[in-house]
């Protein structure tokens, strides 16, 4: 089983050597984001079923800092159409897991859509 993996990341270079993603409509799955989203929903189900009592307990079980668990669990508040974009790989390229970890996510779905539209 010797399969090569290949991924295309469209970049542009400025005169100062700064890299940024080029605007493209190509489908590109952000696997880091998808894994984070999956973990968030898994942890939410642990809390909902009573298998775990708190985010801190999940963090202790996973060997993570409690803030990591809480930051990722905020992703479960994403509007369904935004999650659908992520699953299809059609989300704006600047919409990354890191952005959501560093910025507050409004609970209101319309406010979320306004933020996502700002990425385009």
UniProtKB/TrEMBL annotation:
<protein>
    <recommendedName>
        <fullName>Site-specific recombinase resolvase</fullName>
    </recommendedName>
</protein>
